[in-house]
Sequence to fold (459 residues):
Amino acid sequence: MTAVPDPTPAPPAEILAVLSLLCPEVVRDIEQNWNAPVSEYARHLWRPVARPASTPAIAARSILRDVLQQRLGAVMQPEEAAKAIDDFEHRPVIQSGLHCLLLMDRITFDALLLAWLGAVENGLSAFVAFMGTTMTMETVGREGPGWLDVGDDKINLFGMGRHKLCRKSTCAAGPVSINKRALEAVGDETDARSWLGTLLASQDKVFGTAADALTELNEDLFANWDRSGRALPIFIDDRLAASAMARHLDHEDSLLARLLTQPARRQRLDHALQEAASGPFGRFLPNATDYFWGIREERVRKLVLENGRLIEPDRPHGVSIPFERLHLKQALLDGVLLPNLFLMFLVLAILPRVRAVGGLRQIGYVALFHQILLAALDETALDERELAAELQVRENAWGMRVIDEQISVREQLASLPEGALFPDLLRQYRLRTFAETTEDLKLVRENARWRKIGRAFGV
Fold:
């Protein structure tokens, strides 16, 4: 008898069925790349995106391009910045799932590696990585931006007292300097070559905020790990989103100005947000603050909208901003307000038609943000009707913990060639399939939110 060959391995149907309830675009990415190398999946995520066509989308892309050019001008020569912007125009993708942590953090390293693979496989000179900076310096039990994980120990990166780490937010805590004494006590010669020497080179620097420090240190680490400079990370954070949001509020007739400051439009938007939060996928939505975060005394503050003002609840002398276009714009420019996740994704991804690549919760709430915006649009207005047509195609992708190594970054660095760490990993991930690397979507199978969705829908 002739042996019948095994059929081509396929992704677990029950997991795809659950994901397809909210994110069919993510399912298509998985199905198309299941047996392909991880590097090919990354290449696929950084594929071109249709150019903005509606008036609001074109305006949003123009604003995003302007604020990105300002950021690039700070870290690149003019010709390099022009090339990076041109690449972004053709392949507008942001790795948007990162928290503002040193690249020695396992999840952060792996997510940035996937983005680098996507950029390199598409021949891009740079790629954009958003790092969330609104969390406190210590989140729980020696975790968070203020701590450096070296595998068998954790180092207080900036030498802050624990009470300060737990109370100060990454975007506002500062000035800071690295904890030279603690770093010198932990490393050996291998560490000195692969990461420690890079950090200690900044031992005499004073950084304005912890976010500034982590951004610059990560740029330095990356440059040491890939001395070929094939594709450079451009780190952005909530503060760039605030600059973009302020630009959207320049004119009273802009879409976001209408949605936020015209009472009837905001009522409709509020209703759409409430409907999504009370719906079957509401557990994905972050709803910790009303539209914006406040910043006071080096800490991000929850705000509520009451009687036409954004205020800190139960804080008579806390942040208090009139919910009016020009007041909001100025507070954003002054660093007193930051957009919440909903507004941040509107200005960085959804409105300018940029693909957002993130984690298993993010793919859920980005899909919901699309639905919320669609529900808030006025389709009797031509520009909003044209935008609604564009929004039928969602640019939403899974790119956090697709690569999910279990050894510490410190241990991994010790086994890779000095100065060519990322090129060596490129060779590895051109050989490892998406199915193998994700262990048949093990993380999705174990994710509490997605499991509850599956049970609720009987999938």
Q: What stands out?
A: DSSP finds 22 helices and 13 strands in the chain. The first strand starts at residue 93 and ends at 99. The chain has a mean pLDDT of 95.
